[in-house]
């Protein structure tokens, strides 16, 4: 007999997004709320992010990942939200039937509302088609971070890190502190991908070379990595000029994150081709009524504070049971934008718009255009791909007439000289 | 270990990391003290510290016995002198605690005589059954 | 002193098939594999296609054993508990000249339901095929199987019936010792057997030389592959072949029983067992498959790999007794259709050994292999029952392929057991999904230590030296790093 459970809200994923969504659902009156987490503990990715940098906006303090997570874990304990850990969701039907499995058996939740807070996954070696042999010693940076911080293992003795995003930079420092020699951080773009402060504290502090406009061209080593070939590349990523062999026994890949959209695909939730996650409105409701999505499954947030604030909006929406109304505006990026969410604006009176710039710009201008007319613009002295722009939707003078809005970000090219 | 960029005996350039602008602040050894160029007051304060005695908050994990998980994440209670960080790591390598530990608990006071403490950043409960123990890693 | 009837050297698909075949008789069989598990050499990296009669090569030994093997299929799959993908194949011709070759295939196959189709008919079955084709030959009898699923099933079936499988044993010498052969391994272990069958794959000629025989040299040709995400299942229904050349069967598109799509292989000379992938080789595969299926979803690649074909100058199999040692049988040059022909090769080898005095008395207590169930393939009710019996079925270890802890534990206790991460991958599919181990790889070291008795410092991906992670105290002290 399969366990059949009626639920008002089922939240899938117990990281910061899921915890905030479950909390807010409870706060706004929902009483049969389930939070399903596949790991033994709540906290999601925060548990392995033992470095500070979380909570500055929401709490005014720089907390480490576990400290930030515990605040929400403790808040949840005070509610009647039922938390099931070590529980994996296998499928979610279009009728909001959630099938999950744990050591007790198979569970079928019949939910009025489903919230996807399943985060994202790392891009792999296969996805970047990195040629060479296939030895042991190649890890995605997040997997290595888990192994180091949660399990206490070390990935190797001598590492090269591909990708200068924050996770790669943080791991460069982490490994160095643990006695692993980090030979270089290799970045295919001509600019740093992560935050400047991480460049200072993770690379400069330890004199770890940053090779810009370079990539790893080949992996060498029979049973275990013995070295990687790195070389300079042009804007298209084609090798130009000299190649060099960097001896190492470990390669960490920090080459991008993609939303964990497998469950959504099976439930036929419309996905945005730019982000890979679902289309959402400013309350983080999906295009299909009864479904919400928050956190990194929507798109990669750079601050967990934004994840929390966006997930907290969901409860109110569920509580108010507004039902499904078509959005007033549909946003699309026209120029200069690598990602933006939400892509649908329902009311435009509250909530925030998050925009990630495609490249570094100074004296920039973010413009919103409707019917060929720029109806709002924001001046930005400086913007970088590693830092999101956050717009207060209440401050935007939305036009009367519904329709499509193009988002344009223009300015003078800016490159941090490091 | 130096911060960045041009660095002669009298001139250093510091990347300010206090706010996202990331200004570059020049620090020069003048006849009566340091002369700072660029940045805002907070940034200049940071730059001053960077060239005299750079400090960093250190976060790492230590071994915990008898807990639900084998490693306890920890932090220094204040930015730690950068040139002594590896010394700190060496000390922490052999240091271990026993569960239960509460988030915020001070595990070590006055690390290496700096007056800075070691603080737990996660609550780890004691594991119930003996057989499923984590012997630490 | 134990004397085995037959010592089989090489735990690839051929060695395991011979072991399994001979295990049907009352014999003491020993299988010696140089690497740490069966299926670690040539057998692990190929397309896994079971070529139908249309693709046999008349007038060759490989052709003969191919045909013999085909008649073994139904019995073997039943006894081994295997279900290959019965998807059929379409060979696509892009010119009138190529189309003439399709006639040859049809004639050769003499398969009633096979047919030469017009472009329109081909597109009706496979709408994604390049519309510029001239014709297509549809062969319903081609199948696809996972080469390691087959090899491991053969090994398990053999072990179930008394075959002793010893891994990590590299045979370095064998000399007559009285009426038997004294077989010596690199680590000093010695075995005695009446017969030795050399099916050491890429090392077969090298081993023969160590035994005092000079076989023709092996040339190695590498083939590179893309593996596409399971989401692409259904993109094509059958195996898609181009018209073959003298060199090889060409760059294919093949659906797999697990739901992935395999693209490849190309054909390029390589040194020994060099199975690196290269930018150039992968591009060649891309172009090759785009010719067959213009919009093949190359943005859904989850991994790439490559295998080698050990070939003899005549491009035929060599299965013959040693000229110097009458009880030593050599097999070399087993390239395509080696996988398909494995049963036929085993039968042929059995006959040869029988002629030299090996008594083949079929036993009446031969045990059939019961296939291991995969959680992924079970219904919800079946899953509930499994979890009730053993809660470890409710703990998902690999989220991409939905593999549970129970299945991992089972693989660790199988015979032959999984001892490495690759061994686990080939048995239960961890590390084989779209995340390529970035999720399960986090948890497996602890699981293997607790459940598999494999301490972290002993956990390897594959061969010696392929350690996965290190314990903290194994990394140099800070002083050296600083």
TrEMBL record, chain B:
InterPro entries, sorted: CPE0013-like_sf, DUF1667
Pfam families found in the cross-reference section: DUF1667
Protein name (database record): DUF1667 domain-containing protein
Species of the source: Candidatus Caldatribacterium californiense
Automatic annotation (TrEMBL), chain C:
Domain BFD-like [2Fe-2S]-binding, chain residue ranges per copy: 396-449
PROSITE patterns linked to this entry: PROKAR_LIPOPROTEIN
InterPro entries named in the record: BFD-like_2Fe2S-bd_dom (IPR007419), BFD-like_2Fe2S-bd_dom_sf (IPR041854), FAD-dep_OxRdtase (IPR006076), FAD/NAD-bd_sf (IPR036188), G3P_Oxidase/Oxidoreductase (IPR052745)
Tree of life domain: Bacteria
Coiled coil: none
Residues of the FAD dependent oxidoreductase domain: 5-352
Gene3D superfamilies with a match to the protein in the record: BFD-like [2Fe-2S]-binding domain, D-Amino Acid Oxidase, subunit A, domain 2, FAD/NAD(P)-binding domain
Protein name: FAD-dependent oxidoreductase
Species of origin: Candidatus Caldatribacterium californiense
